[in-house]
Amino acid sequence: MTASTELDSTVMNVLLTTNDSEVDLDLTISDRRMLTTDIVALDLTSATGELLPNWAPGAHLEMNLDNGLSRQYSLCGDPADRRTWTVAVLREPDSRGGSDYIHDHLPTGSKVKCRGPRNNFPLEGARTYKFVAGGIGVTPILPMIRVAEATGIPWTLLYGGRSLESMAFQDELSRYGSKVTLWPQDTHGLLDLAGELGCPEPDGAIYCCGPEPLLNAIEGRCDSVWPTGALHVERFRADLPDLTHARPITVELAQSGMTLEVPADKSILEILTDAGIEVDASCEEGTCGTCEVVVLEGTPEHHDVVLTEDERESGECMMICVSRSKGTCLKLDL
């Protein structure tokens, strides 16, 4: 930790919690409430009454729905609460079946098969935090704010949405007073990133989650002003590859001794599955991190939103659901 304030043992444990205990869980929706006209909050508890696994701010839960879809949602409750996990789900205007199903077919008392927790957006120690959230992107930020507040580390939140009516968790955030700035676009325009991020702070960190235009804007703002590594972002969707000009690649599997040809219009994961190679996978969109494998030879062409820039540059691992190869061959530790 680089924070100047001394952390108590409870909060320190929250910050340092790892999510290696990812497990399959049978959960029950113990409560649901509409936060806005299109955002529902779900409280989930163990169907057997057991304590839930530890998790740290930034972690998400995978929900495996009865319609065959799997979706990932940030845990936005209290990390210290081992009895209840909370997620908030936006009904997407162009829903592919996940958010619509949750809104329309999961009343209180419903049983849901889940897997988690997994954390691709961990909160790291810093002297100050600047949080920026767009829309439903506020959900992973909420537990981070609780930790920063509990430790006495200075922080601010700039929270934007289409309108005040569309922005969830306003009651909870109101307790923090001037540390939180609500910025509805219909009355204020686009977020004032220049004002919020114009002056880099020593050992400060920025955490941002929201739609792609916001993330692109904040990356552009920070690249020339803030130190490398200060900005941490979480994306809703991966940069899926354009396969129009893709080429076939060869994948060698070190453990099984198999060599497989991956056509231009297929993913590595699809070909492995067809060949009977069992690989953990979930979203198949490069957002959850489940299908990460070690790369022994070759240079991956990354299209996920999980790996950091340093991890991408190292080329030591890849998400085989969306990523391919910059060359013609890869050797994987499978």
Automatic annotation (TrEMBL):
Residues 22-124 form the FAD-binding FR-type domain. Its EC number is 1.-.-.-. CDD domains: fer2, PDR_like. Residues 247-334 form the 2Fe-2S ferredoxin-type domain. Keywords: 2Fe-2S, Flavoprotein, Iron, Iron-sulfur, Metal-binding, Methyltransferase, Oxidoreductase, Transferase. One of its GO terms (molecular function) is methyltransferase activity. This is PDR/VanB family oxidoreductase. It comes from Rhodococcus artemisiae. The lineage of its organism: Bacteria, Bacillati, Actinomycetota, Actinomycetes, Mycobacteriales.
